[in-house]
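So, read this over?
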Amino acid sequence: MIDVAALPLPISLTACFIGGLVLGYVYFRALRQTADLIVSRGHPLLALALTFGRLGLLLLGFYVALLAGGLALLAALGGVLVAKAVMVRQARGAVL
């Protein structure tokens, strides 16, 4: 198994930021699906499964980033926040 902390800092920070972007996109996409299920009175167990799945995936991703160190965790968080900003901008553009 690769020791994530042994990677050079620029590589691990870049990988964690990109991983955070992917995590953020998946998380907020699943959040959108959950909200759509609730509004359209979809199956409540599916909404519950999506909620636990997206939270578990986010926690797992942050744990892997934490193994690479505190800066990598912050880079992953930055990626998630950038993905959130992009998704919000897309949602506002679709409404207007």
Notes: The chain has a mean pLDDT of 90. The two ends are 48 Å apart (CA to CA).
